[in-house]
Amino acid sequence: MKIGDRINCFTAGLRFGLVIMFFFFSAAPVMAQVFGKTYEEILEKAKREGELRLWWEVPGERGVGEQLEAAFKKRFGFTPRVSLTPVTSPDSLLRFLTEVRVGRIDADLLYAGASDIAGRPERLALFEDIEAPLVKIFSPKFSGIQGIFKNVAPWKRPYSVDVTTLASGLVYNTKKTSADQLPRTYAEFAEGKGFTDPKWKGNFAINTIGPASPLGDMAIQGYWDLEKQKKVLQMILANKPLIKRSSGDVRMAVALGEVAAATGNIGGAEGLRKEGYPIQTKLFEDVMTLGSIGLTIPKGSKSPNLALLYLAFVLEDGLPIVERVSGEGTFIDPRSKLAKSLQSMPKARILEWTPEEIVAGQRDKVRKALQALMP
Amino acid sequence: MYPALEEGNIRVDIPANFRNRSRLLTSLIAVVAVLLLGAPLVVLFITSLRPPDALPLDPGVSLDNFAAIFSSPRMVLVLANTAVYGVGALVLALTLGAIIAFLVERTDLPFRSAIYSAMLVSLAVPTMLKAFGWVLLLSPGLGWINHILRTGLGLEGSSGPLNIYTMYGMIFVTGIGLSNNAFLMLSPLFRQMNPEFEEAAQTSGSKGITVLRKITLPLLLPGLLSALIYFGMVLVQVMETALAIGVPGGIRVLSVHIYLLTKAEDGIPRYALAAAFGVVLLLVALSLMGLYFWLTRRQDRFSVVTGRSFRPRQLKLGRWKYIAFSFVMVVITCYALPMLILVWASLVKVYQAPSLEALSQVSLHSYFRTLANPQVQQSAANTLTLMVIAPTLSVFIAFCASWLSVKRKMRWVEVFAITPMGVPNVVLALALFLVYVMTPIHGSIWVLIIAHIVAHLPFTTRVLSAALLQLHKELEEAAQVTGATTARTLRTVTVPLVLPALVNGWLWAFSATLRDFTFAIFLMTGRNMVLPSAMWVLWNVPDISGTAALGTIYMCGFVLVTMAARFVDQRQRKKSGWEFS
Fold this sequence. Notes:
The structure holds 2 protein chains of 2 kinds. Chain A is an alpha/beta fold. Chain A folds into 2 domains: about 35-165 and about 295-325, D-Maltodextrin-Binding Protein, domain 2 (3-Layer(aba) Sandwich); about 170-290 and about 345-370, Periplasmic binding protein-like II (D-Maltodextrin-Binding Protein, domain 2, 3-Layer(aba) Sandwich). Helix content of chain A is about 45%, strand content about 15%. Chain A has helices spanning about 5-25, 30-35, 40-50, 65-75, 90-100, 115-120, 120-125, 130-140, 145-150, 185-195, 225-240, 245-255, 270-275, 305-325, 335-345, 355-360, 360-370; strands spanning about 50-55, 80-85, 110, 160-175, 205, 240-245, 260-265, 280, 285-295, 350. In chain A, strands 1, 2, 3, 4, 5, 6, 7, 8, 9 and 10 form a 10-stranded mixed sheet that branches. In chain A, helix 11 (about 225-240) links the parallel strand 5 (about 205) and strand 6. Chain B has one domain (about 15-50, about 75-575): MetI-like fold. Chain B has helices spanning about 15-50, 65-70, 75-105, 110-120, 125-140, 145-155, 165-190, 195-205, 210-235, 240-245, 255-260, 270-295, 320-345, 365-370, 375-405, 410-420, 425-435, 445-470, 475-480, 485-495, 500-515, 520, 530-540, 545-575. In chain B, helix 2 (about 65-70) packs across helix 12, helix 18 (about 445-470) packs antiparallel against helix 21 (about 500-515) and helix 21 runs antiparallel to helix 24 (about 545-575). The two termini of chain B are about 45 Å apart.
């Protein structure tokens, strides 16, 4: 064997060894070191860890937190001290990334949009693999978990699992209008049966300042081209909508009867309806645009086992509680009303920005172009 | 040893130990100022130079953020909107505030003490809730007043005739909302004005308008300028009303424009751009302050409280009393209406316009539900700590800064204290976050306390320096001539004379702390949740009756504190012989 071949052989062997070492050191041992190996061990360590620093806005809503606490105690027999920071998704990620820079991580379980993490390897590296322990250790005892992970998009795995799905649709006041008055499809919406119809003049709202595009990313993935979106938006704006600053404000305007209907995230309307407000939602039959926010466990968490236990609990018992109380469901949970309502619309295309599209700047381009038309 | 006196102009030779104490105090103030204000401002400047897409603390230097500000295609329209909105609201706020301050402090208007308290109470309601109250009253489709007008005037249709979502609506709501702040800032000026100057002018044959033009207004000039500059800067920054009323009506002003620019398309806020805006606004604020100092450079001309005792003269209103009283009542009704509609919203489980039929729906359900919320309970204790410490320290530091500036001619201290005025709260919150994230106080209640001290220093410093400007130096000099130490002079002469301004400053800082959402949300962690953050969570759900209930509880708490502060203030007035007759 010539010296060059020997070197090649050595290099190949070295590469193979490095790859094996990389997998050996990076994958399996992390799970073994950070989380307990068995359900009992995780439970025991979680009890010892005691406090969970939870960054998630949902438990602060309409008594969700109290119901989660009671359900947790019923299942595990103890009540952890939950330090709840009800922060919203983009701000939570900014804060987390800044804290990471100075080595002071203040969260054990973090609520963040996977799409803002997935396309960036340096951000991905900041989170634990949660799927392996949840599926391997918790699925035998928690029947819902495996079903949920089957629906998590591959690009969000293994570090994030959706707990909120922001589904764009229509919300309307049942005292002021009815479902038949509203368009069934996006196509109808654009062709004059939606808010471009003069009958809605000044009597509808759109949600739209800030990062969201004016109509909830209505033409994701080329469903409509940008020119069509701009044309529809211009027609809608000419019909004098009330422009609200958030989905919550839109729902409030509809619930109070300030306007008859609105576009926006449909989640949360259920809570208002339960209180007695005349509010109802309607999804488009041909397309549904989604945005998801998930829970993740940051590397460096002080209470990783408690975070994992709590996450398993949220997926198994918590999500149904959240949907029942506040009406915010998640598309990936087969038990959710939102998932079931999608099954009843088999023709609907489900559209969500992917990390590739985001990194390529497609989302920003659409949003920027539409925001430029806003007053 | 007695201090030396010079003929003609009193010169006080302060003993060496007094000078040392003064230097020590100055050094202490300088250290506090640098820690509180210098560090965030430096961080703000550094952040503004970060590349546009970078995260805070990322490396890199760029001027792109400044270029983005001035090349934004909407900037001309936004600036025009801001100018109309700012000038309109400023004129309305200062006119109402000044007229009511004059009537309360210098005339025999009936029920002046009650009017004073009423002016303060509406400070307790967060601006966002007040704007929401006005929407419930004047929204074309929902407003209760519109409903009454349609019914009363027999108008057809289900919307109008009034529309809050216009430029007029924004100016009205903001002007009314700031007028009680203007009142609070201007009333000590009227109260401490020695009437001898006006009487001398009248004795020499001047008429009412001439006295007002040549004596009263020039004497009030520093205070009025101070208020004008302060509210001018505030109006560039205030965002809640512009978001709640301007945006739905398609009107964009600078504060909202900054807010929208910070919300990048990829969901991560562009704080470098916001910081660049903060730096630009800071330069504008500093220029305005320079102008103010130049205009008031001969400050002794404005000293109206001198060593000779005086009793502020009360103007007899005569038959104008009823017109003046009616005017004040109309303004107070404007304060009360949005609060009353909020109280109503808190009493009905499902909101409906007030009516006799709806009375059957009234219950305290929302209050019980809100008070049982563990987050609200947990936040209450933190809020109490914040409300006691932040306004008190803010007023204390402001007093020291104002005293050094006015009495020791160290104007840089005052300039330094008021620099945060130019920085939008959201940017200041980011700067404070970046400064303190590396320290153990990050995430604790102390970071909120520091944020509120820094944010409220400009107002409290302005209030106190305006009041100190009116105290002639002979008062302190007289005390020192008789051997009083600096501390004793401050305790027995200066502080009692500016007590009304101290109380007003404290109350204002208290109410601003109570109303703030920006710091409470931006710096929020599970350990430092306060009631504003709890209210924000309820608002975003949206939990309409729960938010209204918490807002009402706020108002009640504030009424109690206001009454206590008024009690202290009035007792001092009685001591000084300034009590309302």
